[in-house]
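=== RUN LOG ===
request id: a7f3
mode: sequence -> structure
chains: 1
length: 133
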Amino acid sequence: MPIATKVAIAVVESAGNILVGIRPTGVPLAGMDEFPGGKCEGDETPRSCAVRECREETGLLVVPREHLITTTHEYDYGTLELHFWRCVLSPDLPDCAAAKKPFHWVNVATLSQFNFPAANQEVLGILSQVSTG
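=== RESULT ===
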C-alpha cells in the first residue's frame, strides 16, 4: 500500500449546524462539498492541523473537542489518511459566526443532501446518528 498523505478535517458544530464548503476549481474533487481541513505539515498533529486549516480556510478559530474517526481512502490521485475532529467555535465567537466563502452553515440533519467525497461517508454516518438520536 502506498504511503498515505495525512489530512486533518475540522467538523465544526454550532447550534445544530455544521460548517460546509465547496472544493474549488483546479483541485481534486473540485465542486464537491467538504468540511474545512487539509494536509498535516511535518510533525504537526492532526488535532493541531484541524485547527490551523479551519482558521486558514474559514477565518474562524475553533476548539477541538473529540476525535471522531480516522479512515484511509484511496483516490485516483493518491491515498489519504483522514483524521476527523469534532470542533466547536472559540468561546468568544457567536453561534454560527460568519465564515469566509465558500464555507457556510447547514443544519446537521440536511448533510445527507450534500455531495461529499467518498472518504467522508463514515463520518457522515456518525453525524446523522447524532442528529437523529
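=== NOTES ===
The first helix runs from residue 46 to 58.
The chain is about 20% helix and 40% strand.
=== END ===
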